Amino acid sequence: MSNLVHPHTVWAVGHGVMLASASYVLLQTVLFRGTPQIIYRLGFTGALLSYCIVVFKSLGRPQPNAAWVRRAFVDENVQYAVLALYWWISKPINLSILPFATFSLFHCLTFLRTNVIPKFVPPSQAPQAGQQRPAPQGLEAVSRRIQVWVKNNYDGAMRFVAYTELAILARVTVGALTFTSSFIAPIFLAHFIRLRYHASPFTRHAVNALTGRIDGLAGNQGGVVANVWGTIKRVVGSWGGGRLVPQQPGQGAAAPGQAGGAGGAAAQAQARRQQ
């Protein structure tokens, strides 16, 4: 199969479509021009394409058995593919595109460094004993800068995604209470964040930090406010604390949407996270 239609290339194109579409949607948001719905859905189409390729390569064809369903249930790429599909069919919410755009940015940069630049710059020869490696020049220097930037900013970006997903949950909850968005949205997203809480240390940190902040505010109010908040925490904790099937060793080490196995070399981020 030619490289033009290689699954890894298609995976990267999907992330590129999401990144370009998200940039346009966010620009229109900043300019208060509303949501360009066609571009918005085009972005999530690109995300779906990328995630479906990864899911197919990691889980294979869907199987009508409990074992396959359990594996799919705890697979973060399946979770994000389902979420992308939900945003694709739902009323547009511009903020929802931010987490996917963040993942796509890192995947596109890594694909550029590992798959595109090497086609134009041959790998440098290892220096002989006693010689220093020459300073990188041109595209090789660009590749090194991309590598360093991804490594230095990956964890921060994943924390940003975790807090953004909580902000989206708050947005759809307010929308449901004010009858401006679906009542299904906060339920669906709350369940998604429950799954991420069990799988991602970044989500756990964000939820715990937000809970601690609200604890302080509620404690200062005292009385009814503190009691109501305590009840909410007990209910949510009871619902969210269910035991999930653990991920297999090594699974979930990179950002969702990684092309693990899709065409060979996966676009892995340099800073790995434990999920």
UniProtKB/TrEMBL annotation:
Low complexity bias locations: 247-257, 265-275
TM spans (from-to): 12-32, 38-56, 95-112, 168-193
InterPro entries: PER33/POM33_regulator, TMEM33/Pom33
Family per record: Belongs to the PER33/POM33 family.
GO biological process, one term: endoplasmic reticulum tubular network organization
Record's keyword terms, sorted: Membrane, Transmembrane, Transmembrane helix
Pfam family, one: TMEM33_Pom33
Compartments, record wording: Membrane
PANTHER family: TRANSMEMBRANE PROTEIN 33 (PTHR12703)
Region spans: Disordered: 247-275
Protein name according to UniProt: Endoplasmic reticulum protein
Signal peptide: none
Topology of the protein relative to the lipid bilayer: Multi-pass membrane protein
GO cellular component: endoplasmic reticulum; membrane
